C-alpha cells in the first residue's frame, strides 16, 4: 500500500518525464528519482514518514516504481499515462534500469490544419483505449524561434558557455504544467511557453503551485545585486 497520494504524485512524475523528453530521447528511472527529490523535496519528505527506510531517494524511488507498476496494471489512477511511454530495461552500471521514452503515437506531431495561425493543440486527449496526452514538437520549435535559446529567468546561454555542443540546448517551461491539463487546449508558443535553463526550471518547480517566471527573475536579480554589492566591498 502506497503511503502517499497517487493522484498528487503521479502527475508530478509525469511532468518531470515530459520535460526531460522535450530535450532528450530517454530518461532513466534513477534520473527521474533524482529530479523528484530535487523538485518536490517537501512532498517526498512528507511521504517518508510512512517508510522504515526514510531515505528520500528510497522514498522517491518507491513513488516512481508505483507509477510504473500502475501503468502496467492499467489502474484507473494511471489512465492518462497508459500507452504514453515506452518503458525498456537497460543495463546501466551493471544494474537493470527502466528507461522511459515517448511512444511513437504520442511523439508524432498533430497535423496543423491552420498553418498560418500561431497556435498548436497540445495536451489533446486521444481516446484509443485510453486517454493520453499529445506533445507537439512544433510548439517547442516555435517557442525557440520566438524567444530564442537564452534562459528568460537568468539570461544563461548554453552556446556562449559551452560553444557548439551547447547550441540548441534549453528547457521549455509550460506556464501551466501539462500534467494539470485534462483536456485539449490551444497553446500559444509566444505566451504559454518560454525557454529556461535546467537550474531555473528546477527552481520554478521547488513548490506547488510552481513559482512564476517573474518571481524567479526577481530572485535571480536580487541575488545578482547582492553579489555585486559584496564584490564592490571586497
The gist of it:
The chain is built from 10 helices and 9 strands. It has helices at residues 6-23, 29-39, 41-47, 56-73, 104-107, 137-147, 158-162, 189-192, 198-204, 213-233, and strands at residues 27-28, 85-92, 95-102, 120-122, 125-127, 131-133, 171-174, 185-187, 193-196. α1 (6-23) crosses α4 and α2 crosses α4 (56-73).
Describe the protein's architecture and organization.
By secondary structure, this protein is α+β, with helices and mostly antiparallel strands. Helix content is 45%, strand content 16%. It has helices spanning 6-23, 29-39, 41-47, 56-73, 104-107, 137-147, 158-162, 189-192, 198-204, 213-233; strands spanning 27-28, 85-92, 95-102, 120-122, 125-127, 131-133, 171-174, 185-187, 193-196. A hairpin with a 2-residue loop joins strand 2 and strand 3 (95-102). Helix 1 packs across helix 4 and helix 2 packs across helix 4. It is globular. It starts with 5 loop residues before the first helix and ends with a helix. Mean pLDDT is 79; it is low at 105-117 and 124-134.
Q: What global shape is seen?
A: globular
Alpha plus pi helix count: 10
State the major sheet. Answer: 3 strands, antiparallel
Radius of gyration: 19 Å
Largest sheet: spatial strand order = 1-3-2
Q: Would you identify the regions where 5 or more consecutive residues have pLDDT less than 50?
A: 105-117, 124-134
Q: How would you spell out the order of helices and strands?
A: HEHHHEEHEEEHHEEHEHH
Mean pLDDT: 79
- Helix vs. strand class: alpha+beta
Query: Care to count the β-strands?
Result: 9
Q: What is the beta-strand fraction? A: 15-25%
Helix content: 40-55%
For the terminal residues, how far apart are their CA atoms? 56 Å
